[in-house]
């Protein structure tokens, strides 16, 4: 996680708009910026996008 520890938020691993639920089993820790920027992507979709951006 980037950002400061006091900036942590709970994000949905599977967004509600993609059928995810609001239970604790569907949560992960993210910094505020990542939580905002990943929009309605799943954790896997967001990870793939970040890896594409980082590859030379």
UniProtKB/TrEMBL annotation:
<dbReference type="GO" id="GO:0008270">
    <property type="term" value="F:zinc ion binding"/>
</dbReference>
<keyword id="KW-0378">Hydrolase</keyword>
<keyword id="KW-0540">Nuclease</keyword>
<feature type="compositionally biased region" description="Basic and acidic residues">
    <location>
        <begin position="1"/>
        <end position="15"/>
    </location>
</feature>
<feature type="region of interest" description="Disordered">
    <location>
        <begin position="1"/>
        <end position="23"/>
    </location>
</feature>
<dbReference type="InterPro" id="IPR003615">
    <property type="entry name" value="HNH_nuc"/>
</dbReference>
<dbReference type="InterPro" id="IPR002711">
    <property type="entry name" value="HNH"/>
</dbReference>
<keyword id="KW-0255">Endonuclease</keyword>
<dbReference type="GO" id="GO:0004519">
    <property type="term" value="F:endonuclease activity"/>
</dbReference>
<dbReference type="Pfam" id="PF01844">
    <property type="entry name" value="HNH"/>
</dbReference>
<dbReference type="GO" id="GO:0003676">
    <property type="term" value="F:nucleic acid binding"/>
</dbReference>
<protein>
    <submittedName>
        <fullName>HNH endonuclease</fullName>
    </submittedName>
</protein>
<feature type="domain" description="HNH">
    <location>
        <begin position="6"/>
        <end position="40"/>
    </location>
</feature>
């Amino acid at each position: 996680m980037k950002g400061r520890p006091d900036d942590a938020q709970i994000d949905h691993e599977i967004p509600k708009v993609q059928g995810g639920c609001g239970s604790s089993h569907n949560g992960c820790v993210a910094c505020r910026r990542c939580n905002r920027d990943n929009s309605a992507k799943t954790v896997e979709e967001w990870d793939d996008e970040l890896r594409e951006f980082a590859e030379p």
